[in-house]
Amino acid sequence: MMLSIPSTAKLYCCSTAPRVSSSKYSYFVISLGCGGARSRTRSSCLLFCASNPWGTSEMLDHRKSSLNAAASTPEVASSSASDHHDVSPPPPSFLDARTEQDLLLVIQKEAEAGRLPINIAQGMAELYHNYRDAVLRSGHPKAVELVMSNMAMALDRIFSDVQDPFQFSPHHNAIREPFDYYTFGQKYIRPLLDFRNSFLGNNSIVNEIEKKLEQGENVILMSNHQTEGDPAVIALLLESTNSFIAENLIYVAGDRVITDPLCKPFSMGRNLLCVYSKKHMGDDPKLIDMKRRANTKSLKEMALLLRSGAKIIWIAPSGGRDRPDPVTKEWRPAPFDSSSVDNMRRLVEHAGIPGHIYPMALMCHELMPPPLEVEKEIGERRLISFHGVGVSVAPSIDYHKIYSALEYPDEAKSTYSELLYSSICQQYDVLKSAIYGKQGLNASSPTVLLTQPWL
């Protein structure tokens, strides 16, 4: 099977707003030349100031520089005409692309050469189109350049990992060099956020958390989970006020984000504790024992981290992403697994370091909504939108106060989990009123003060 690229692309000048075909799979080409409407000159219009708050992917891959160096060596330059016919030119890379058609042709050629499995090639092409459409809807004046820059880098990273797959350890530290995967992920997700319709709840509590970390204490964020982009959403809303948390937060991550080729490069830029979700534990009965052993290793790694102190860990005790109600279509935080909450609480208490558990609410499902139902197979479709998002944190909840107040202590575990979940739902409702109810900052409540520190 070949990955077909339609040949009916049209050329438009960058001096006007980009035109997008209404057909999902009709491709367009946009000249980045600075000349007239018919100019096809490749110029430096793709590059722009890195201080632009929307950012751009300016990181270069060593493969591109080595290809350029090889092309300029004396041996190549002095080759005779007969020799020239014996040397095949190096295949173009994603980083060489200057137009949409260039990018799609590289996908096609790598698939035809057998270096990209067809299903991954198709996923990459679809990812490009969905990302392009979402960023163009943002109305950003440099949307075309952002799409080309970010998608060229994303496709290059995906392809590189297909060629040489990265293996995640139980505790993965974000890869910041020689390629900065964290910054790459931030720049990729940033254009998808409608910052004017995004909100941070209780920034004062986030500041409180940062002070506890500075004092060597541990912090656990018990949160709902909505998209694969949750880590980037959290980091983007905190980077202007709490960059230490944004960059040092450790995420308890399911196996899908470290095995799906389209997701792996983004996961490589985050600090992770890798586990197998209960929802996917039995997908393949032959792998159940292996998954349990892997989870035991990750729990040991988590215990060691907490014993060292000054760690902040994000976990979704629901065991997966929120999904809309099949009848009402309403999005709500998925219920917590009380045993997961209790296991995390006991790990914190046994660390020998003061620890605190805070409920965190996330609202960002429009950004990259998950499949409506849990899928066993790796390779879900990536639907992408430009939308407002929200993050909120509420005060820490002390388990021992609940335990001592109950007549029947055995109820403490479920009651504690219910209180955390209830706090998240309350914060979620405030974020929903701000974003979907169009109330903005006026949606603030006595327990959730909304701010927009990035504006």
UniProtKB/TrEMBL annotation:
It comes from the Eukaryota. It catalyses: sn-glycerol 3-phosphate + an acyl-CoA = a 1-acyl-sn-glycero-3-phosphate + CoA. Residues 219-365 form the Phospholipid/glycerol acyltransferase domain. Pathway: Lipid metabolism; Phospholipid metabolism; CDP-diacylglycerol biosynthesis; CDP-diacylglycerol from sn-glycerol 3-phosphate: step 1/3. It is an enzyme of class 2 (transferase). Keywords: Acyltransferase, Chloroplast, Lipid biosynthesis, Lipid metabolism, Phospholipid biosynthesis, Phospholipid metabolism, Plastid, Transferase, Transit peptide. Signal peptide: none annotated. GO terms for molecular function: glycerol-3-phosphate O-acyltransferase activity. InterPro entries: G3P_O-acylTrfase_chlp (IPR016222), G3P_O-acylTrfase_N (IPR023083), GPAT_N_sf (IPR038114), Plipid/glycerol_acylTrfase (IPR002123). GO terms for biological process: phosphatidylglycerol biosynthetic process. Residues 71-93 are annotated as: Disordered. GO terms for cellular component: chloroplast stroma. It is found in: Plastid, Chloroplast stroma. A motif (HXXXXD motif) lies at residues 225-230. Its main location: plastid. Its EC number is 2.3.1.15. Belongs to the GPAT/DAPAT family. PANTHER family: GLYCEROL-3-PHOSPHATE ACYLTRANSFERASE, CHLOROPLASTIC. Esterifies acyl-group from acyl-ACP to the sn-1 position of glycerol-3-phosphate. The enzyme from chilling-resistant plants discriminates against non-fluid palmitic acid and selects oleic acid whereas the enzyme from sensitive plants accepts both fatty acids. This is Glycerol-3-phosphate acyltransferase, chloroplastic.
